[in-house]
Amino acid sequence: MKYLQLIRFKNLFIIALLQILLRYALLIPILRHYGIEPVLTDQLFSLLVLGTLLFAASGYIINDYFDLRIDRINKPQKVIVGKHIKRRQALFLHVLLTAAGVFIWLFIGYVARKENYALIAVGVPILLWYYSTTFKKQAVLGNLIISFFTALVAYTVVSAEFAMLARAHGAHILMTEACSSAWFWTTGFAFFAFITNFSREIIKDAEDIKGDKAVGCKTLPISLGLPLTKAFLIVLELASVIALWLIYWQFSIVREIPYVIPYFVLALTIPYLILIWIIYTATSAKHFHRASTVNKIVMFMGILLTLLAGQVF
Question: Where are the domains of the chain?
C-alpha cells in the first residue's frame, strides 16, 4: 500500500481516465463521424497510457525523494520515503520506471514515425528531475512545467492517432475536417487540464508554505504573500468560469452537447464558485488542502464532460 501511495495511484487513475475517455468517448466518435476508422491499435494505445503513467509515477517518486525535509514539516504523518521506504529503494524504483517509460515512448515513436516522441522520451524525465531539484522552488515556473505536462497528456492521444493515420492514408488526412475537429476538442480539454492543474499547484504551494519557507523556496505564496496569492487565484478561477461560458456562447457545436447547460452549471460553475469561496476564506493549510480537493473535483468533472461531448458526433 505504501508503494501505491508513493506513486500517487489516485492521480495516476485520473491521468489514465483522461487519456482513455479522450480516445474512446471523443476521438473515435469524431473519426467515425467523418467516415475514418482509427489506425492506432488498442495495444499500442495501452502502451501509450502505460508510458505516460510510468513517467508520472517516477516523477512523484523523485519529488518525494528530494522533498523529504519539506514533507517532514508540512505533512510528517504522510512521509513515506525515508520512513516506510528506504531512499535508495525509492531512487532505484524511480530509475526503473523512468527507463521503462523511455523505452515505451521510443518504441511508440518508432512505430508511429514520430521523431519528436524521442524528445518526450528524453525531455520529460529530465524536466521532472530538475523540477524536483530546482524549478519547483521558483515562483510560477515549476507550476507551469507540471501544468504543461498535464496538457501534454491530452495532446499525445490525438497526436499518436493521426501519426498512424498519416502513415496509413498519407499526410493529406492531416488537412481534413476530422483532424481539425479532433484538435479543436482536444485543445479545449487540454487547456482546461492546464488551467485547473496550474491553479491547484499554486493552492498546494499555499498549503505547503511553512515547509517551503524552511528550505528557501521562492514559490508564489512566499514571494507575493498569501493575500496577493489568494487574490491571484480568485481572479484565475473567475476567469476560468467566464471563459467556460464564453466558449459556450462562441461555438455553436458546444451548445449541441446534450445537457450542456445543467452540466456547466451543476458540475463546473457551482464547484468553481465553492472553490473561490474556500480560497477567499482560507487562513490555514487545512483550508488550502480543502481547496485542493475541490479543485480535483472540478478537474474530474471536466474530464467526464468528454462522455457528453462525444455524443455530438
Answer: 2-28+35-312
